From TrEMBL:
Annotated FAD-binding PCMH-type domain residues: 1-172
Highest taxon of source: Bacteria
The keyword DNA repair appears for this protein: no
GO molecular function, one term: oxidoreductase activity
InterPro entries in the record: CO_DH_flav_C, CO_DH_flav_C_dom_sf, Diverse_Substr_Oxidored, FAD-bd_PCMH, FAD-bd_PCMH-like_sf, FAD-bd_PCMH_sub1, FAD-bd_PCMH_sub2, Mopterin_DH_FAD-bd
Keywords, ordered alphabetically: FAD, Flavoprotein, Oxidoreductase
SUPFAM superfamilies xref list: CO dehydrogenase flavoprotein C-terminal domain-like, FAD-binding/transporter-associated domain-like
Oxidoreductase listed as a keyword: yes
Pfam family name, one: CO_deh_flav_C
Protein name (Swiss-Prot/TrEMBL): Carbon-monoxide dehydrogenase medium subunit
Amino acid sequence: MPELHRPETLAEACSLLASLDNPMVYGGGTAIQILLKQGILFADNFVDLSRIPRLREITVDHNGLIVGPMVTVRRMETDERVRATSPLAAAAYHHVANPRVRNTASVGGNIAHGDYRLDPPTALLVLDATIEAASTKGTRRIPVREFFVDFQQTALAPNEMVTAVCIPTQPTGSGRFVKYSSLSENDWPCASAAVLVADSGGRREVRIGLGALAPVPRHVSFDATGLSDQEAVDAAIAAVEPALDPIPDVRGSVAYKRRLGRVAVEDAVRSAWKDLADG
Ligand SMILES: Cc1cc2nc3c(=O)[nH]c(=O)nc-3n(C[C@H](O)[C@H](O)[C@H](O)COP(=O)(O)OP(=O)(O)OC[C@H]3O[C@@H](n4cnc5c(N)ncnc54)[C@H](O)[C@@H]3O)c2cc1C
């Protein structure tokens, strides 16, 4: 039976992770509990971060949001500061699972879970967010664009934990998050896309984050200055094509997911583009 540890400071949490046998950070537990029940997760010690106040805070500075890893997914969709500073991130967190999961799952656990189907990383990639990670060796920052290393594998070192997700203020323009599920509305995505059409000083850039369409969440971007809406959609579909490498499963075949990925990108780019045209 694993032992549960509940440190009250970050330093204590770091030293527990460095000294205990086979430790694992415990966030909201929504993924951990399922994996335990399935008998495919083995940890001797859980380090629960919920008693460390700083890890439950959302702060706003001149760069954007600094989100503690124990902030719930639900708070990310409802907090007015998140919705004002980064509406695209709020939209992606809003689409995670169902209210029961969102009320319990944490921002840190969501990203550290490293699943290729996660919704929030699509927006975090587009917004060029950064992960703050800490261990007894110190603190470092990892761009989200370098965080997802391979299938179910992140850039976190053993015994390192996420201590913040830093999300820059959303650039001027228009953002859209689109998710298609095959089994039920609240299910994991079959394909998802976060799109930002950044529009500043006459220059337009399209940034796209893809979820469930490759072994890791992926992103692409391109200069869209001077394009019509249809040209932007065509350029977006051409740009994502090399990034589409879906894993077939109960939610769809490779061909189906590739097709749905293109539809999600078209849908998101077209509606974000229209929002800009409508002012
Ligand atoms: C029914 C169901 C449906 C779901 N559907 C979706 C969906 O549609 N879209 C989606 O995006 N997600 C979905 N999820 C996944 C859900 O988002 C994750 O389960 C959740 O975000 C994990 O967060 P948690 O805090 O519960 O993590 P935990 O279960 O506590 O931990 C998950 C992993 O992260 C590690 N971890 C936790 N916190 C940290 C930290 N601070 N630093 C380092 N490592 C840490 C743990 O050690 C563990 O390996 C679904 C989950 C369920 C149960």
